[in-house]
């Protein structure tokens, strides 16, 4: 991944106690907590630094810690644990102002009960079984969103669960800091790609900014032939080149133009601090081609992208790439394009006019040029490949008018059984869970659009943690989905989010 991800982010490991037990016990609590924090920090499952914080025993110390977490540019969330009993009313002030995600680790320093030696000193020190219940009550009483992870701290599953939550927290951090660039508006008359940008700023912190395509064209035109040719050489080293695009080939000039567009786009995004962008084939003033290979390669470098002005999906692609950083098996902008309705194995063929990220390719992409058929511009260069097989997640952010909703569908991607020799775009075939009829019906009832962020690495748990901390509704469609129950869930959610707006 490119350098556009933030470095040096951290989570804070915080332990609660009280002064009832004396200094010796608190010193031991501190030592144990430091050991747990170091253990979690060493886990590959947790992608950021774990910072140990000294044990908290007073309301003032707790409130100060929460204030510091809010102000910290590095802290993306807090993991809290009550080694001993920590009266939770001490936590109410701090938690009521805490703006960072919270993970409640329900663990115990000693894994086993020392049957032969257990005495009241052991009991006084190892109290999380009831100390964490007190803490949990206060958060439930406050209606605080948080993740609860249960298990001994050396159990690898504990680090994995905290790791997933940390990745979701990185996603939220990115949402709160995201600058998203829109070249042109969204496609005329299209409903689902539109949305409330002010609400997105209020809810998520992101800023969605418009730029005239002509401003981008100026930057694209400033790229020299030599720079564009240098990038063409990189294309040649990375992809199977269609003969007409090779040096001396009849379409070589189109490749140079495509490379110039990529370099111009990247320069424009870098100058503006943008991590995601949209374009639209309806507004390409002065651009020779609809960006194809440019958008594909920028996605592969970590940028979020949405076609036809779909800024919500550009944000989702970016956030999924951030959540999956370092472990990404492929994440792309995607569109449910056409169906295979054979009753023996109904499937969805996903594709787009051009813009599918090569991170999901099953083999070396082929660099090709073909007519687009819409937009009235020169033939665009694109990478053509089939997507790989495996479990994946398709997720769409939609604007429901009074709130945002993420609709997610767990899918099984499969290699196409036959070649598609006439299809000049990248494609991927998948079976939605629980099956196409139920999955598509559930998706449509939930208002999920045709554009998605499609990821082999982002799971239902990442999205659940992300939605919880972002305060956004999540409707997940998976192997257990019952359409009637999902329709009820959608109706109940209307009441829940309606009431939430009142309280
Ligand atoms: Mn589209």
Question: Helices and strands in order, then pairings?
Answer:
Blueprint: E1 10-16, H1 23-42, E2 49-52, H2 59-71, E3 75-82, H3 89-97, E4 102-106, H4 120-125, H5 128-141, E5 147-150, H6 156-177, E6 179-183, H7 197-204, E7 207-211, H8 213-221, H9 225-238, E8 240-241, H10 252-272, E9 276-278, H11 293-300, E10 304-306, H12 311-323, E11 331-340, E12 347-351, E13 366-369, E14 381-384, E15 390-399, E16 404-414, E17 427-432, H13 436-445, E18 451-455, H14 460-470, E19 473-477, H15 483-502
Parallel strand pairs: 1-2, 1-3, 3-4, 4-5, 6-7, 6-9, 8-13, 9-10, 16-19
Antiparallel strand pairs: 11-12, 11-18, 12-17, 13-14, 15-16, 15-18, 16-17
Helix pairs in contact: 2-3, 6-12, 6-14, 8-10, 9-10, 10-11, 13-15
The structure holds manganese (II) ion.
If you had to describe this structure to a student in words, what would you say it looks like?
The structure is a single chain. Helices cover about 40% and strands about 20% of the residues. It has helices at about 25-40, 60-70, 90-95, 120-125, 130-140, 155-175, 195-205, 215-220, 225-240, 250-270, 295-300, 310-325, 435-445, 460-470, 485-500, and strands at about 10-15, 50, 75-80, 100-105, 145-150, 180-185, 205-210, 240, 275-280, 305, 330-340, 345-350, 365-370, 380-385, 390-400, 405-415, 425-430, 450-455, 475. β15 and β16 (about 405-415) form a beta hairpin. The structure holds manganese (II) ion.
């Amino acid at each position: 991944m490119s350098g556009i991800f933030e470095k040096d982010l951290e989570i804070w490991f915080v332990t609660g106690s009280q002064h009832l037990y004396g200094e010796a016990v608190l010193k031991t609590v501190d030592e144990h907590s430091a050991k747990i924090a170091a253990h979690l920090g060493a886990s590959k499952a947790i992608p950021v630094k774990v910072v140990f914080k000294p044990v908290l025993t007073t309301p003032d110390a707790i409130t100060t810690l929460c204030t510091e977490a809010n102000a910290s540019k590095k802290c993306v969330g807090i993991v809290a644990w009550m080694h001993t009993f920590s009266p939770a009313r001490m936590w109410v002030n701090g938690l009521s102002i805490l703006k960072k995600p919270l993970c409640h680790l329900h663990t115990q320093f000693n894994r086993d009960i020392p049957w032969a030696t257990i005495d009241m000193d052991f009991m006084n020190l190892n109290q999380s079984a009831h100390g964490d219940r007190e803490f949990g009550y206060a958060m439930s009483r406050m209606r605080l969103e948080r993740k609860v992870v249960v298990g001994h701290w050396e159990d690898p599953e504990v680090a994995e669960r905290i790791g997933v939550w940390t990745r979701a927290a990185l996603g939220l951090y990115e949402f709160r800091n995201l600058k998203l660039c829109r070249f042109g508006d969204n496609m005329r008359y299209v409903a689902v790609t539109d949305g409330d940008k002010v609400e997105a700023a209020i809810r998520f912190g992101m800023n969605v900014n418009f730029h005239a395509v002509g401003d981008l064209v100026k930057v694209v035109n400033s790229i020299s032939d030599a720079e564009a040719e240098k990038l063409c050489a990189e294309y040649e080293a990375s992809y199977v080149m269609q003969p007409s695009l090779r040096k001396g080939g009849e379409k070589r000039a189109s490749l140079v133009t495509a490379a110039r567009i990529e370099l111009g786009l990247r320069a424009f995004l870098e100058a503006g601090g943008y991590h995601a962008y949209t374009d639209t084939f309806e507004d390409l003033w002065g651009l020779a081609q609809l960006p194809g290979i440019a958008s594909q390669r920028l996605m592969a470098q970590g940028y979020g992208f949405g076609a036809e002005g779909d800024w919500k999906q550009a944000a989702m692609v970016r956030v999924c790439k951030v959540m999956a950083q370092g472990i990404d098996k492929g994440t792309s902008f995607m569109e449910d394009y056409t169906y295979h309705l054979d009753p023996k194995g109904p499937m969805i063929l996903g594709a787009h006019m051009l813009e599918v990220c090569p991170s999901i390719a099953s083999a070396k992409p082929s660099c090709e040029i073909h007519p687009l058929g819409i937009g009235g511009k020169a033939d665009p260069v694109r990478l053509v490949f089939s997507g790989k097989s495996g479990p994946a997640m398709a997720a769409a952010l939609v604007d429901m008018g009074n709130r945002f909703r993420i609709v997610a569908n767990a899918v099984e991607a499969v290699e196409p059984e036959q070649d598609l020799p006439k299809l000049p775009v990248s494609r991927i075939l998948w079976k939605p869970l629980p099956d196409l009829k139920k999955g598509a019906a559930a998706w449509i009832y939930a208002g999920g659009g045709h554009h998605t962020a499609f990821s082999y690495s982002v799971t239902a748990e990442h999205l659940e943690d992300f939605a919880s901390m972002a305060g956004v509704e999540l409707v997940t469609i998976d192997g257990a989905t019952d359409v009637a129950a999902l329709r009820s869930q959608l109706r109940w959610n209307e009441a829940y989010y309606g009431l939430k707006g009142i309280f």
